[in-house]
Amino acid sequence: MSTLPVNGITVGFDDTGSGTPLVLVHGHPFDRTMWRPQAVRFAREGWRVITPDLRGYGESTVVPGSTPLGTFARDIGALLDALGVERFVLGGLSMGGQIVLECLRQFPHRVRGLLLADTTPHAEPPGGRAARRELAERLLREGLGPYAHEVLPKMLAPHNIRALPATAKHVLRMMTGTSPEGAAAALRGRAERTDYVPMLADIAVPTLVVVGDEDEYTPVEVAKFLCERIPGAELTVIEGAAHLPNLEREVAFDDAVLDFLTRSAPLR
């Protein structure tokens, strides 16, 4: 557990293991602990796993207002500069996957491989933009508690909430522990995100797309869309998982990612 001053804020992060750097970006409204199981296993398998808290989340500085995806990406780039990491494999889930695409847009020369989990490359439609702004105001009024309990059965498949109570507790703890101001800023920024679809055909690094087969937020069809447009991309569908397959089906998720990394020999 470490912190560093970056871009005028303090960023919390974990830096585990040694070897080729693998940077994992969490989704909303979570923090870096969503990647803790992967950090432990991947470090054991010879990877240096870096998991930052995005600004407004976890141990990183909360900045009210609006946080565009470009700001998150610049924070990650600056953190890696501070750590002396020039090139790395980059992965993200949900909003984290969109931030990964923004990182690729800003500094493609640094990215050696991609993991895109339960995410979409599309810009927010007009209705979605309004809904995100309204949700931002709701979180400021109510805090994260009511929202967290409302969305838990979509973040985790209901049968996994029953079967994996410790996982459900962890997910709730991350959500309810998130700053309303930080979450609202991310929602406002995310509402204005760019359309990453036009850049997909130009991605020239090994790419793995992963999705839970019960994901309601970013269904399998969206993952297939990504794979069809990213040259050479591979698709893994995790059975019995919703929006957080890395926690719901930890072993299956980790096996798929490690298999991909191992076969993508140029990454090492």
From TrEMBL:
It comes from the Bacteria. The keyword Transmembrane does not apply. The keyword Hydrolase applies. Keywords: Hydrolase. InterPro entries: AB_hydrolase_1 (IPR000073), AB_hydrolase_fold (IPR029058), Carboxylesterase_BioH (IPR050228), Epox_hydrolase-like (IPR000639). Transmembrane segments: none annotated. GO terms for molecular function: hydrolase activity. Residues 21-249 form the AB hydrolase-1 domain. Pfam families: Abhydrolase_1. This is Hydrolase. It comes from Prauserella flavalba.
